[in-house]
Amino acid sequence: MPEYYDDLEVREPQARAEQLFSALPAQIAHAKQNAPGFGELLAGVDPAAIDSPTALAGLPVTRKSALIEMQKNSPPFGGMATAAAGRMARVFASPGPIFEPEGYAPDYWRTARALFAAGFRAGDLLHNCFSYHFTPAGAMLESGARALGCGVFAGGVGQTELQVEAMVALRPDGYTGTPSFLKIILEKAVELGADVSCLGKALVGGEALPPSLRDALAELGVSTLQCYASADLGLIAYESPAQEGMIIDEGLIVEIVTPGTGEPVPEGNVGEVVVTTFNRDYPLIRFGTGDLSAVLAGASPCGRTNLRIKGWMGRADQTTKVKGMFVHPEQIAEVLRRHPDVVKGRLVVDRDADNDVMTLHCEVASSEADLAEAIVASLREVCKLRGEVILTAPGSLANDGKIIDDVRSYE
């Protein structure tokens, strides 16, 4: 049985970087010319100059949280797609609503690679319990299964007993869907005395897979790996049998940036996952997912050489309301930017009796006596709210990607 989906997975990292960044200028030129939103957003950008990580980091981030308003102003895709809805194979809607196109390219969402890593091979029958209704999750995994040469049973969500009956009759080799629903199905099979031992492997997503749940699924006979994907981008990263982090898909450039700034963070620091895709139909350039993660050092023990991330570590959109006014991570980033002595900062929002209070904790190596007062003034000027400032030593703030930490309790 071949160990890797293709040779791309084990190439030298430098060869991968050269290939991706040599292809990037043409993709940016394509987006500028054919997607009106990117034509406006990148109006002053010379695509030929965007051929390195540093150059890419200079482009603006388009955040998923902004898509709802963008699509209202320029329906249905906010000017980010290169063709009208009627020219797409299918159109989906995620909560918001946010509309997502599917083009005609084989394995459009690039999920075959993750399925392969999870042990699926040509001739397997895949029991797909991702949703086929409105959102693209079911279609995403089905397209990858087809690319591998697998058959698919479109189970969808819910109807647990019927799922068990189908498994008994069809004897599928593996499962795709959320891990919690897989556990429900397997426990129902035990309750009914149904033999679903055919189901030996699973690729799951859409929710967390804590070690306790993975172990419980293993005890029920299913070896489970997970993938990280989104309706906008398709596959972003996936686990291999080594189960040491999630390996970035070969068709993307992924950056981890400080929430609110778009500036890449040092390796190992937690930040927002920002993705650039080479999808010709939906050429998202520096797309801010709103998810937090961090890069793991080195290559996976499985031999795959691409960048690894820790997986989903929370949400980067930490906007909160203080005294009736919204405070955004971008505002805190602007406050910190005004004071070069500050290495890192975190705004803590709490309550004192019935009053909201803000305290900006700032890591500084050394400071002048009036630095705290100057930061207080910047905080008031940028956020239009009064807050306190506490200066701390470098390394004292947690490495969890939080720019705003709302700890208020209303009990």
Characterize the structure shown:
The chain is of the alpha/beta class and 411 residues long. The protein has 2 domains: 7-249, ANL, N-terminal domain (Rossmann fold, 3-Layer(aba) Sandwich), CATH 3.40.50.12780; 320-406, 2-Layer Sandwich (GMP Synthetase, Chain A, domain 3), CATH 3.30.300. 28% of the residues lie in helices and 25% in strands. Helix 7 packs across helix 8, helix 8 (179-192) packs parallel to helix 9 (211-219) and helix 10 (329-337) packs antiparallel against helix 11 (371-383). The longest helix has 22 residues, at 13-34. The radius of gyration is 23 Å and the shape is globular.
Shape: globular
Radius of gyration, taken over Cα atoms and rounded to an integer in Å: 23 Å
- CATH topology term of the largest domain: Rossmann fold
In the CATH scheme, the class of the largest domain would be Alpha Beta
CATH homolog superfamily of the largest domain: ANL, N-terminal domain
Task: Supply the number of helical segments.
Answer: 11
Q: At CATH's second level, what is the architecture of the largest domain?
A: 3-Layer(aba) Sandwich
Counted beta strands: 21
Which structural class should the secondary elements be placed in? alpha/beta
Percent of residues in helices comes to 25-40%
Instruction: Enumerate the strands of the largest sheet in spatial order, edge to edge or round the barrel.
Output: 5-4-6-7-8-9-10-15-14
Content of β-strand: 25-35%
Main sheet properties: 9 strands, mixed
Query: What is the residue-mean pLDDT, rounded to a whole number?
Result: 93
Number of domains: 2
Runs with pLDDT <50, length 5+? none
Report the span from N to C terminus. 57 Å
